[in-house]
Amino acid sequence: MPGRLAPLLLVALGVAACGPLQNASQTLERSPTAPALQAAKPSSPAEFGRAYPLAVGIEWTYAVGYRQRTRAEGESEFGPWREQNYSRVNRCVRKYTDRGKEYFSISERTRELEPPYREFVGLNERVRQDAAGLYSGGEGGGLATLPRLELAPGQVGRPAPGPAPFERVVLRYPLHVGQAWSQNGQGGALALVEAIEPIRTPFDVEPAARVRRTPAGASIFGDPELSWYGRSGLLRTFRQLDSDWKTPQGTRIGDRQEEVVMSLVSFRRP
């Protein structure tokens, strides 16, 4: 199951965990929004919609619920959901400057909450932000392999705002309804801020931007991904995948449905 989970968890940024976690069914069926917008604390533009919390030592903890079900060829109904729960911790571990841009390295560790209690350590994610947006540039190492950044005309020693050629646009600032962008340049996945709505976390109710990411053309990721971003960063994400159910030899034997939800349960600053 972890092999199937991996592509579903390719989410922008991550996370850090403590406290009881719900099972996958409860997590997936829980409404992501708070009952009333009035419950959300007011936030200034500097806190929400124009910056992501980045500093060495910040940790995000997420509860991850994954489930899948299958339907044999010729059958009309799917079988029962099979579930697996995880805890995922992301930590900002390093800050450095490369060609005039300030980057942060974010680590990722995921563990199963049921037997056999395995742990999975992901590659560090290299991220940065400026006034125009939040960007992801792959693993934290390998600086020598990155292309040289070009300076805008008239600038001395300071790269222009916006993504470099090797970077993916995670968020485009400011976050407001209707804000849209391409994640990977021409032909990349499209992202759109659909709404600003309250999201309840274990410690607060935060106004959050609901971002829908739609794959461009054919994609193994299936349906669009929904993510909610607030003052604490990534608050929640949901992804669904409909695919062929196949034997290890590649023969189709039916249909498979998979769902994964990741919800913030802890946010700690240094």
How is this fold's topology laid out?
Blueprint: H1 2-8, H2 24-29, E1 59-72, E2 82-98, E3 101-112, E4 119-130, E5 133-139, E6 168-172, E7 180-182, E8 190-201, E9 204-214, E10 225-230, E11 233-246, E12 252-268
Antiparallel strand pairs: 1-2, 1-12, 2-3, 3-4, 4-5, 5-6, 7-8, 8-9, 9-10, 10-11, 11-12
Quick tags:
single chain, 270 residues, mainly beta, twelve-stranded antiparallel sheet, 2 helices, 5% helix
Commentary on this structure:
The protein is mainly beta and 270 residues long. The chain is 5% helix and 48% strand. It contains 2 helices and 12 strands; from the N terminus they run ααββββββββββββ. The protein has helices at residues 2-8, 24-29, and strands at residues 59-72, 82-98, 101-112, 119-130, 133-139, 168-172, 180-182, 190-201, 204-214, 225-230, 233-246, 252-268. The protein has a 12-stranded antiparallel beta sheet.
